[in-house]
Design goal:
Two copies of one chain form a homodimer.
Chain A: H1 3-12, E1 16-19, H2 26-41, E2 46-48, H3 59-62, E3 75-79, E4 100-103, E5 114-117, H4 124-135, H5 140-153, H6 164-175, H7 181-188, H8 193-204, E6 207-209, E7 214-219, H9 221-227, H10 231-234, H11 238-241, E8 249-256, E9 260-267, H12 273-278, E10 283-284, E11 288-294, H13 297-312
Parallel strand pairs in A: 1-2, 1-3, 3-4, 4-5, 7-8
Antiparallel strand pairs in A: 6-7, 8-9, 9-11, 10-11
Helix pairs in contact in A: 1-4, 2-4, 2-5, 4-5, 5-6
């Protein structure tokens, strides 16, 4: 399928429900919201499936599009969902009936009847932008969530996935007259006092391995509780470890309830993060991947350090 | 003067010395280096005046262009220099003989025989890019320092000065085949352990004023000495205060030697940073300005808080 064929398929659809992934980020929500708005501009009925884990950060972009309770879709599509296991629980009735998946993860699982996957896109939002260009005008109501999608998945144009096309799309979206300074301020230039304190704690307790090339930061559940951290406070905390000078493999471990640990891995050229995370049952991108494992923080740490050692041959 | 006229003037020149400002940042160095390279591509003799305060961060971009000791220029120009007082001391012999100043500061002092000032440009590098387009091909040797210029002055496309044109220029530069991921990693995604510790200290000791809308962070000289901080460690530390949730006026005070204090002010829409800094003898942009004052840290703090109160009418 090419972009024009995806656009043609979308033109044929109606009664469309758009699915996003668990622990929704700006890309899955922004892509879904922009596509939903574009479909509505074509006169179609389209909604997003409510995502129970959405944080206050992204809620404003999704809220206008939530499907009403009990509404029955005719067609189901997904944006930025790599594998069906990353769909939220309330998507269970739809997971075997997804007509079209649009995604940019190299680890995409081809769970839908048809798929459009471009792993060279920094964000799923870049693909959605190309599709929408074929369908309708990029209005401010489309441009704003698309900007959220591409800016969040590139850390505001700083991650190594950023390409000339990412900037070209950003220029096009800003040219629609949207004011991105409020978005940038809220998403990238605001830290709560709780977050500043958590970052200071993580930095003070970081551990270095493999000749100081591997850094491990930990977010114990007790720390979150003690500080009264919200989900928004801990969102993207894994980017902190990746800043430590001299390291090229940054591991962040976050203790979840039920004896589980969420592992985030950010890497430089030497280490393939997807390969590392695959060894513990996860996936993602070359420079940013993740996994959720069972066990204690210490067990998770040992498991992911062993995976890094295996992949790097150290 | 328009861009074409500036380009025409540059074509007439030879034996060109380019001046940068004190405490050189990526924009003054990147703009000067890119312009110097472009002039050399035209077959001209062109150099940068050595800037004694350059840090390791920007040295690689300037080093190939430093003027040899004793070299006598025929023409002198400046990039990103707002007022003549911001020229380094070794520029004293040239300050009354500057043929052309290219700048983007609204507080530009028109100290040169001719000036091209565009305050709508996020970075001086955007202007330089437009000029170079008229002169020669944008080769990778030009594109890389220009990328450094525009990315540093926009905090990597996150500050409110970023426009659609900023992204358009970034797309054009990346399209030249330069690899910006190394630049982004070094400039925006690397923090030394000393810097992480200093940020933690500043965050722990921050003070809030004016119903928590004004935040003050301080960098005492004793802290820098105790931690063995280099200039690179404290570069752009003023961006930390601007992150504190709920504030729209972030003041950072850095104690310099000789009983002086460098004040940095970053503001939201409510507060004009340039107006605030003008009241204590400084200048800059609407959302980011600075000043260097004599006195103790406490005196500097009282002076700048009084200036904020006067400008905001609180």
């Amino acid at each position: 399928m090419n972009i024009k064929q995806v656009a043609a398929r979308l033109r044929e659809m109606d009664g469309i429900l758009i699915l996003t992934h668990v622990r929704p980020d700006g890309d899955t929500i922004g892509s879904a919201a922009a596509l939903c708005q574009a479909l509505r501009q074509l006169g179609k009925e389209a909604y997003l499936l409510y995502n129970p884990e959405i944080t206050a950060t992204y809620l404003p972009y999704a809220e206008p599009y939530w499907a009403p309770e009990g509404w029955q879709p005719k067609t189901v599509i997904s944006t930025d969902v790599a594998v069906a296991d990353l769909l939220p629980e309330n998507a269970a009735p739809y997971r075997d009936h997804i007509a079209l998946a649009i995604d940019h993860h190299p680890s995409h699982g081809y769970f839908a009847a048809e798929s459009y996957v471009d792993a060279s896109a920094a964000a799923c939002g870049e693909i959605i932008c190309a599709i929408i260009r074929e369908l309708t005008d990029i209005t401010p109501a489309i441009a704003l969530p698309l900007y959220v999608a591409i800016s969040t998945d590139t850390g505001c144009f700083v991650y190594s996935n950023t390409t000339a096309n990412t900037h070209r799309v950003a220029a096009e979206l800003m040219g629609c007259g949207i004011d991105v300074s409020g978005v940038n301020k809220a998403l990238f230039r605001t830290k709560s006092k709780v977050r500043l304190a958590m970052e200071a704690h993580m930095a003070a307790n970081m551990e270095l391995y493999d000749n100081d090339r591997v850094v491990v930061m930990q977010i114990p559940q007790a720390l979150c509780e003690e500080m009264g951290a919200t989900m928004a406070d801990i969102e993207e905390l894994s980017s902190l470890a990746a800043l430590v000078e001299g390291t090229d493999c940054a591991i962040t471990l976050r203790e979840l309830s039920g004896d589980k640990v969420k592992i985030s891995v950010r890497t430089g050229a030497r280490v393939n993060a997807t390969e590392v995370c695959r060894l513990v049952g996860g996936g993602g991108h070359r420079a940013a991947a993740g996994a959720t494992v069972s066990g204690t923080m210490e067990e998770a740490k040992q498991a992911i350090l062993a995976a890094v050692a295996k992949v790097t041959g150290v």
